[in-house]
Amino acid sequence: MRYLPLTENDRRAMREAIGIADVDELFASVPAGKLLTKLPDLPRAKSEMEVERELTTLAALNTAAGSVPFFVGCGAYKHHVPASVDHLIQRSEFLTSYTPYQPEITQGTLQVLFEFQTQVARLTGMKVANASMYDGSTGAAEAVLMAHRITRRKKAVLSGNLHPHYASVIKTLSHHGSAGVLALTAAPHGGEDIIAAIDDTASCVVVQYPDVFGHVQNLQPIADAAHKAGALLIVVVTEIVALGALKSPGEMGADIVAAEGQSIGNGLNFGGPYVGLFASRDKFVRQMPGRLCGETVDAEGRRGFVLTLSTREQHIRREKATSNICTNSGLCALAFTIHMTLLGEAGLRKLAALNHANACDLAERLSDIGGVEIITPAFFNEFTMRVRGDAQLVLDKLADAGVLGGVRASRLYGSNAGLDDLIIVANTEMNTDADRAAFTKALTDVMR
Amino acid sequence: MPMNTQGRPTQPGEATQSNAATFSGNSGLDHEEALIFEIGSANKSGVDLPEIPAHTQRLGGLERRAPIGLPGLSEPETMRHYVRLSRQNYAIDSGLYPLGSCTMKHNARLNEKMARLPGFGDLHPLQPQKTVQGALILMEMLAGYLMELTGMPAVALSPKAGAHGELCGMLAIKAAHDARVAREGGAKRSVVLVPESAHGTNPATAAFMGYSVRSIPARDDGTVAVDAVQAALSPDVAAIMLTNPNTCGLFEPEVVAIAQAVHDAGAYFYCDGANFNAIVGKVRPGDLGIDAMHINLHKTFSTPHGGGGPGSGPVVLSAALAPYAPLPFVIKEAAGYRLVEDITRESGEGRQPFGRLTAFHGQMGMFVRALTYMLSHGADGMRAASEDAVLNANYIRVGLRDLFSQPFGDRPCMHEVLFDDSWLKGTGITTLDFAKAMIDEGYHPMTMYFPLVVHGAMLIEPTESESKASLDQFIGTLGALASAAKSGDAQRFTEAPRFAPRRRLDETKAAREPRLVYTSPTSP
Fold first, then answer.
1. Strands of A372-374's sheet in order across
2. With contacts defined as CB-CB under 8 Å, which chain B residues touch A288?
3. Among A271-280, B21-30, B118-127, which is the least confidently predicted range?
4. What are B275-293's pLDDT values in tens digits?
5. Nearest to B325 by CA among B346, B348, B347, B353
6. B414 domain-assigned
7. Which residues contact B89 (CB under 8 A, 6 or more apart)?
8. Cross-chain CB nearest to A300 (options B18, B207, B511)
9. Is residue B20 part of a domain?
């Protein structure tokens, strides 16, 4: 077995050194009858080429996003990842290192985390950011629990235009104890009156920006209303590239930002691993979940970095920790940081502008088709269209024509929500003019 | 000197200046590297993009105007910056990484290659299901392997890491209790039993869900006695969270009786599967009577740790808990595989999912890597890996037992061996000092000061990836260090590390004056 260095001779010599005749003597504590006498009912070891053949065959059953005109978004986005990003994250020293608990020999990872935290804080317009969460959705749930701790209240008000899967995660993780969630219904055209739902029992208001339908709105009035009621404003961002073109949540009064960072540096991966970005006002830092990297000095006075404020964390505080999170998304955070460094401010702004310009172009083309209406008043790179007929049928026909045309709202909201004719369409820098022409032609044919 | 609650010093002592000073601050192949905020600039970029087509903005008047403060670098500068930083990291690929309970085994590059096949890596979680049948088959295959290896009838794949898996298992347990109360009446259960030797995530998970934690003491031999569990059980106990093999590196000998007692009391048995690498193909947790167990794919099944994640923590479930598994899940139908995302519309088979743990379907990228590991090893290779892992740990135990002290006597361990610091008594050297001296010798330290039930704990897990020659060298080095410690050469330890990119770092200062983001020295 190519991964096991011990030879039979080694094993024999080691058993002798230990003073046993059979390795099973080391399993003597296993209760009687529970040590397996035969192998599990699974195939035997395979060579590298056999495994590669088997999995390549399986992969070929799937339609890769990059192989077709592709307009699917809703929380995960197909962006270009520079080749150097994937090379660097596969450096042995990054890929096969553990959590940096020994700072003297993990300054590489630690400095990257410090750069990551700074990039995330600046991009979201917040003062501090942590070293990452699993993904945007779990970060959003942790943000709600953090708001409960800060305000000592237990009700979260969720926008109806928050990604329904995010809303589900929040409900799942906060439906214990006496915590409550007030979730509004979807308002795909915009104009949701969330301010009316805020009262002085609310710990927080959770809004997505741009929202799941792609709509962008000024959050300042919501922030003002929340603060007046003693509640916090949590802003969820699922398309982080948008913040290269749009005002940051921090500029509009956000208290906590929970975002999905997949769009920068990370592939689609069928839903994971992704990277949760988590930022807040600095006065809340001791209520934050997750790891934090901080600057300090070594015994010779040289700058260095360590994991810090760990008295919030489970390995120190156990049942009094702010969260149970341990492993986070270190390597995905590294990919984010490298890609963001490659982009720089100018590159990010241009990338965002390109996404927006292409989306505007697509929206114009699609709105010219009979039976299609673009209903999103203001958007970044994703918008919602109403189609005549059933969205599921339309998407299926588009797929048959070789175009993956978006996500039907009813896949996220269920078929009882009255959103059966809505399709959410994303357009990134990866979509070419020809892609948009193919989409337009295919949809024209379908709607005919 | 400031100490934390485990007696671990958090601030370095006085150090002699290293005398090998250079003009640049660099030292041969090791480079000092500034932060991107000190070397990059806002108008420099390592990415070329096409020109922006003319368009009328539709951003609703919310255009970003203020500068963001994101420095950029060209591609060669970016490459050099991150390559230099990488060289300041210890890694499995460069040396033995004996972190107990972390299972730092070899990460095969085939696994990386397979995860990057466009047919896996370039799939969107919401693209039409008929276009992702191969991915759903892969998830079903992985589920099948995990169920066979654990002897359990169901598995939830979506948890993102071990602690997330704990949450999944405990939410399923809570849902089962809630369903019972709804069906039969009776009181809610509010207590979770957690042994003192548990990982910190266990009590944190229980508390996260609103349970109160009742601690169970370990007995003198480092294991949990069924009597102690019996004594702690009461009608308000919802579950026990027990790690097996436990964090002292021992298989719990009374685990079957403990499971029986827990079930008799109407509670469930959550098993922390962090140490599954000791028993793959040797013992099936399902045969021991557990109800739920997370499996750290990033430990046992070799998906890379990546400097702190991403992990993946699928949870196997007993028949009693299976109906409550979270959304989404894959089912097989006549027309093919289907991912069930919404139970109200597609319910069936008596499923009552407790909810949803993450936006999408879990760590697919890790599923591909873990399955690649499983296919490569096969049933025989996986069993051999566990046997080698246990053999390696015991070889270290025997190699060091005359110099180090074992808290629970001289007896076989599983895949990790635990020492305490009683052998260091009177030397003026702490576990931390010893660990830092290992760094100077080219080794990553073992897990220190954990489990908490042992004073100055040193938990060593070599994994199956180490050759005998590597183990002999490790034992030789640690033996030499131990002799040096006992012969009074304290300075070697208290001043260590001397040859790492940094000397000891001031954790107290970092916590007292937190600097969590970069601020320019010139900004106000």
1. A372-374, A382-387, A422-426, A407-408
2. none
3. B21-30
4. 999 999 999 999 999 999 9
5. B353
6. yes
7. A93, A94, A97, A100, A105, A106, A107, A108, A109, B307
8. B18
9. no
Q: What is the CATH number of domain A83-339?
A: 3.40.640.10
Cβ contact, residue pair A45, B377, below 8 Å: yes
From chain A, the residues in CB contact with B378 under 8 A are: 42-46
Say whether domain A66-80+345-447 belongs to CATH 3.30.565.60.
no
Interface of B with A in 53-72 (CB under 8 A): 53-72
Q: Establish if B1 touches chain A: CB-CB under 8 angstroms.
A: no
**Cβ contacts of residue B66 below 8 Å, gap of 6+?**
A251
B388 to chain A, any CB pair closer than 8 A? The answer is yes
Query: Whole-prediction pTM value?
Result: 0.97
* Beta-carbon contacts of residue B213 (< 8 Å; ≥ 6 apart): A318, A319, B191, B192, B194, B203, B206, B207
- Name the residue ranges covered by the structural domains of chain A: 66-80+345-447, 83-339
The domain containing residue B206 runs over which residues? 113-371
Residues 443-502 of B with CB under 8 A from A: 444-445, 450, 464-468, 470, 497, 500-502
What is the complex's ipTM, to 2 decimals? 0.97
Whether residue B391 and residue A358 make contact (CB cut-off 8 A), yes or no, is no
Alpha-carbon dihedral of residues B460, B249, B462, B471, nearest 10 degrees?
80
Whether B140 is covered by a domain: the verdict is yes
Task: Examine the domain organization and report whether B321 and B231 are in the same domain.
Answer: yes
CATH code of the domain covering residue B387:
3.90.1150.10
On whether both B342 and B427 belong to a single domain, the answer is: no
Beta carbons within 10 angstroms of residue B476's beta carbon: 11
